[in-house]
Prior knowledge:
Blueprint: E1 4-8, H1 13-25, E2 29-34, H2 46-50, E3 59-60, E4 69-72, H3 76-89, E5 92-95, H4 102-111, E6 116-119, H5 125-141, E7 146-153, H6 163-176, E8 184-186, E9 200-206, E10 212-220, E11 223-231, H7 235-248, E12 254-256, H8 258-262
Parallel strand pairs: 1-2, 1-4, 2-3, 4-5, 5-6, 6-12, 7-9, 8-9
Antiparallel strand pairs: 7-10, 10-11
Amino acid sequence: MKPNLIINGAGGRMGRRILTLAVESERFDIVGAIERPQHPDLGKDAGSLAGIGEINIVLESEPPDSADVMIDFSLPEATDRVVEHCAANNIGLVIGTTGLSAPQLGRIRDASDKIAVIQATNMSVGMNILFSIVGKVAALAGEDYDVEIVEAHHRFKKDSPSGTALTLAENIAKETGRSFPDCLVHGRHGASTLREKGTIGMHAIRAGDITGEHSVILSALGETIALSHSAHNRDNFVRGALRAAMWLSGKGPGMYSMQDVLGI
């Protein structure tokens, strides 16, 4: 039996691609396409908005009370309502929204006592492989290697640095004994910016329609190790989210990760 899927943020760029690829996969029954109450396209067929023709599911502001799983790619201000609804109605939740606050992350963890949750700063398979190894590489390199992270995204991205860059830094900090986020240095400016040992430099670029690029630079006197990931388009994030939703459907309460989904 196909999982019943709700897509929150279905009127946005990511939401429309999630809807499109979910329909194309033929692995889900779409039961809800949700947007904020003020969205100009409310009441229109979600499939038509996504460019795939009518699917007899209209864009609504309130999610149905019954489903197996919801995918949320929206904005942080919508997250609390999504978490509350899923926890109250026993709906598994995959959250790809970034820029969440510490209190919001706490409420997500609390909800995982009642429902199955995956919250990830990046849903792509390739990036989650990088998440799994970046800390180990930094630990192997040792403290003589300076660590810098550079991320680039499109001009419309609101949060900075990206959640993905922060996860890379956090994984490095865990494996190398650094205090996160105290070890971060966000950009450099001024006459005295000599690098402090043990810090992780963080640099954000916002330009054009860059989908997502992340580079981790580990450099010592004499050589440099570089680990990088480039997203060619949004579909790799969508496929990862759909893979997570399929895996999560039917799971018991708990806080799961993309590493659990991928078995790494």
